[in-house]
Amino acid sequence: MTLKIGWIGCGIHASQMLLPQLVRHDVQLTALCDIDGNRLAAAGRQFGVTHLTNDAQELIRRTDIDAVGMAVGPDQHLMFGKMALERGLPVFMEKPPSGSAAGARELLAASEKAGKPLLVGFMKRYSAGNKIASNILRSGRFGDVHGLTGYYMTAPGYFAGNVDYTGFFLHHCVHHMDLVSFLVSPVTKLTARKVEKGRGILLFHVHFDFECGAIGTIAMGTGQSRGAPVERIEIMGDHQRLEVDNVIEVRWNRNPPFKIDDPAAALADGEDTLSWKPNFTAAANEDPKGYHSLLADVVPALAGAQTSAPTIRDGVVAMERLEKLRHELAL
Ligand SMILES: NC(=O)c1ccc[n+]([C@@H]2O[C@H](COP(=O)([O-])OP(=O)(O)OC[C@H]3O[C@@H](n4cnc5c(N)ncnc54)[C@H](O)[C@@H]3O)[C@@H](O)[C@H]2O)c1
């Protein structure tokens, strides 16, 4: 049955990334909301929606919707998320699920009280390279994970003249507070060190102890250009190593013999490196970042099915970890 969705927030992310992927699923966008009249009108035209409002409460009160989706901002996610759940509607929201761990816990309580799911947009789990890596790890063919290293960087332009890093933590770092456990296991200890070399130019290393015994470090910061790749993950095992570059390039290094002295050297199944990257010339499957695959789990979950879509429980874990990180960094 086609799911009727009321959507709040028609900003850049919603109109360029989420809504184009959402409407590929069995949904009907019934109503849209934004306080910016131009954006609202543009999204209405783009997605063929005529019920347009600047009042989120009015949208949530509509009787012709089955679920609410939103990509607005931390405080609005908390306020509108609670409102929709209290009205008995399932919800999908972009990260962050509120601006604080306490807010995320309020949303979890509201979801449990309503008996309705709240799904969170941790799409890094579904980005093509991360998805492949996690499936290899879960297959049993990789063996125990010993360690995770990686980096996630962004640009100082985001913070020009504003050395409040709150936005960087809430909108960026939160992804990896979720992703590391999705790839490895729950985090038992988190520590961090930082260096700040100029206004708004921050680098920190976050160290994780994982429940499975692995260790991890992710470098994060605000000192790189958005115009070049800013994301890499490497997972270390016993004679096995997975590398995911820029979320779309995967290498699985295993245990090959030296080739130089072997006249018959070739590439052997089961021991040489497997690699993958997408064919960007194919005019199909435009989903390297994972929004479509995330929503493929979210839409049935909104309709009541059990799927792997990240929930507000995952949101609470990520937000608590994020606060621990900020505490460690004194930022
Ligand atoms: N997962 C990802 O990769 C990813 C990427 C970008 C953004 N996001 C998230 O999506 C959310 C939106 O980000 P964005 O870049 O599109 O921001 P944006 O500022 O472009 O869009 C937000 C929109 O919400 C509207 N809005 C603000 N207050 C409102 C209210 N009270 N009622 C109705 N509309 C309101 C604004 O007018 C704006 O159009 C953020 O939470 C961000 O973290 C996620």
Overview of this protein structure:
The chain is α/β, with parallel strands linked by helices. It has two domains: 3-123 and 292-311, NAD(P)-binding Rossmann-like Domain (Rossmann fold, 3-Layer(aba) Sandwich); 128-288, Dihydrodipicolinate Reductase, domain 2 (2-Layer Sandwich), CATH 3.30.360.10. It is 34% helix and 25% strand. The strands form two sheets. It has an eight-stranded mixed β-sheet, with helices on one face. The protein has a six-stranded parallel β-sheet with strand order 3-2-1-4-5-6, with helices on both faces. The radius of gyration is 21 Å and the shape is globular. It starts with a strand and ends with a helix. Nicotinamide-adenine-dinucleotide (NAD) binds at residues 8-14, 33-36, 39, 56, 71-73, 76, 94-95, 121, 123, 171.
**Major β-sheet annotation:** 8 strands, mixed
Number of domains: 2
Q: Whole-number radius of gyration?
A: 21 Å
Counted by DSSP, the helix tally is: 9
Ends distance? 47 Å
Helix and strand string, N-terminal first?
Answer: EHEHEHEHEHEHEHEEEEEEEHH
CATH T-level topology of the largest domain? Dihydrodipicolinate Reductase, domain 2
Quick recap:
The chain is an alpha/beta fold. The chain folds into 2 domains: 141 residues, NAD(P)-binding Rossmann-like Domain (Rossmann fold); 161 residues, 2-Layer Sandwich (Dihydrodipicolinate Reductase, domain 2), CATH 3.30.360.
Features:
single chain; 331 residues; alpha/beta; Rossmann fold; Dihydrodipicolinate Reductase, domain 2; 2 domains; eight-stranded mixed sheet; six-stranded parallel sheet; 9 helices; 14 strands; binds nicotinamide-adenine-dinucleotide
